[in-house]
Design brief:
Shape: elongated
CATH topology of the largest domain: Rossmann fold
Distance between the termini: 74 Å
Bound molecules: uridine-5'-diphosphate-xylopyranose
Number of helices: 17
Strand content: 5-15%
CATH superfamily of the largest domain: NAD(P)-binding Rossmann-like Domain
Number of strands: 14
CATH architecture of the largest domain: 3-Layer(aba) Sandwich
Helix content: 40-55%
Number of domains: 3
Length: about 450
């Protein structure tokens, strides 16, 4: 099938590349010319494991293309995926201006009927508004194409976005007519049947089960995305609440969380306490969901609590830093990890950046290292000393903070790190390192919700 993608951010680019990979003809566009310039030169505007190979291969076989000509992109596909940004406005509402502009563009440029699919995360009832907008713009236009609207939320996670797109556990399509359903079933049939040869799947791994296809109405489909992301945020904040209680009571959050996760009704995922959730999805989605609830007159205090707990994570780590160092001013602090989570260079709403700002405000000096995000962080925080390795960042530091749990930090020679540091003090903002191992190596170690030292076991006579 011929598919157009409007918006080459994480969602649009990964969706477009993966749909090309499973056999469709895909044309992508974006109104950010710099981004398109990078793509046209064979580069990627962001780091995402596995994506470069897929983009490259599909460009070569000409199933994937990029164009600066927005009209050409609109005319190309029978199905148009809108993947434009929906950033938060000051009041927390999702800014839908780019979606509205996309609707106008589609009406102005289309010469045939189109199925317009909203893939960007949008508040419930946006589909209705989009349909109205398309109808209004169509009345103002001399062209006579017809438009159907569908919703198809994306659940991909940065860092594993390619795998999530090719092996999703569910595909949700919100439709109001049978033709739209058939078209979307057609687009996703290779993924639903897992009938393509997966470029990233390790043959040693067991095959993933085929995804479940859920066909819903458009409002429900839109709500599903927000409900999922908000629930994930809620789980993280709950884990952080438990961690706070553990710190006050001397319990060990690792043990509490492990036991909770073994209950199949709870599950272990998204129960890792630490610096909290960041990124461009969870924080903004919860805000938009909150606004939606408030406007509908619903008690959303649960969601406010989730946000408040998350907001206090950096503050709580700063208190520990103050406690350990007494005075932060003029002291050098090493920060490992800048991206909002590992395996991405995305620093949007990254807790690490918040933390660094607070250290700088307190008069401290920061030496930072991240495997991918340094270039992006430089623009936000120019006064930080960016280092080429974790060892370099640790040199002379009076404290080291793990802000993002990149797997490569586990492999560091921590004995060497201790030698390099001015004071062997670790604040592990992600409970990433083994507390005992670090203490045995001679570090003063503080995690989140972990006891200050291992309780001695009483011997049984
Ligand atoms: C999220 C959703 O997971 C995905 O389904 C949706 O499509 C887009 O939004 P993403 O933003 O890539 O994906 O990040 P995610 O993996 O959800 O992590 C979000 C944040 O939560 C990160 O800052 C991460 O460090 C933090 N987190 C995650 C925790 O603090 N604890 C956990 O247990 C899990």
């Amino acid at each position: 099938m011929r598919v157009s993608i409007l918006g080459c951010g994480h969602v649009g680019l990964v969706t477009g590349a993966c749909l090309a990979e499973v056999g469709h003809e895909v044309m992508c566009t974006d109104n950010d010319r710099a981004k398109l310039g990078v793509l046209e030169q064979g580069g990627l505007p962001f780091y995402e494991p596995g994506l470069a190979g897929i983009v490259d291969r599909n460009l070569r076989v000409q199933r994937l293309s990029f164009t600066r000509n927005l009209g050409e992109a609109v005319r190309f596909g029978d199905v148009i995926f809108i993947c434009v940004g929906t950033p938060p406005l000051r009041n927390g509402d999702a800014d839908l201006a780019a979606l509205d502009a996309a609707a106008k563009l589609i009406v102005t440029e289309s010469q045939t009927s189109k199925l317009v699919v909203e893939k960007s995360t949008v508040p419930a009832q946006t589909g209705q508004r989009l349909r109205q907008a398309l109808a209004v713009y169509a009345r103002q236009s001399t062209l006579r194409s017809s438009f159907r609207v569908a919703s198809n939320p994306e659940f991909l996670r940065e860092g594993t976005a390619v795998f999530d797109s090719l092996h999703p556990e569910r595909i949700v399509i919100g439709v109001q007519d049978e033709t739209a359903e058939l078209q979307l079933r057609g687009i996703y049939s290779p993924i639903l049947e897992q009938s393509f040869s997966c470029p990233i799947h390790d043959p040693a791994c067991p095959p993933t089960p085929p995804p479940v296809l859920l066909v819903t109405d458009i409002n429900s489909s839109e709500l599903i995305k927000h409900a999922c992301n908000t629930f994930l945020a809620l789980k993280i904040s709950y884990a952080n609440l438990i961690a706070d209680i553990c710190e006050k009571t001397g319990a060990n959050v690792d043990q509490v969380i492990e036991a909770m996760g073994l209950d199949p009704r709870i599950g272990p995922a998204f129960l890792r306490p630490g610096l909290g959730f960041g990124g461009f999805c969870l924080p903004k989605d919860i805000q938009a969901f909150l606004r939606l609830g408030e406007r509908a007159g619903i008690d959303v205090s649960l969601l406010h609590a989730v946000e408040n707990i998350n907001r206090r994570r950096v503050e709580s780590l700063m208190q520990k830093l103050h406690q350990a160092l007494w005075v932060i001013q003029h002291k050098c602090i090493a920060v490992l990890g800048l991206s909002f989570k590992p395996d991405t260079d995305d620093i949007r709403f990254a807790p690490a950046l918040d933390l660094i700002r607070q250290i700088l405000d307190a008069g401290g000096e920061v030496r930072a290292y991240d495997p991918q995000a340094i270039e992006k962080a430089k623009a936000e925080l120019p006064t930080v000393t960016y280092c080429e390795s974790a060892y370099q960042a640790a040199q002379g530091a009076e404290a080291l903070i793990i802000a993002t749990e990149w797997e490569q930090f586990r492999q560091l020679d921590w004995a060497l790190m201790r030698e390099t540091m001015g004071r062997p003090l670790i604040l592990d903002g992600r409970n990433f390192l083994q507390a005992n191992t670090m203490r045995t190596l001679g570090f003063e170690y503080y995690g989140v919700g972990r006891p200050l030292e291992e309780p001695a076991r009483e011997a049984i006579a």
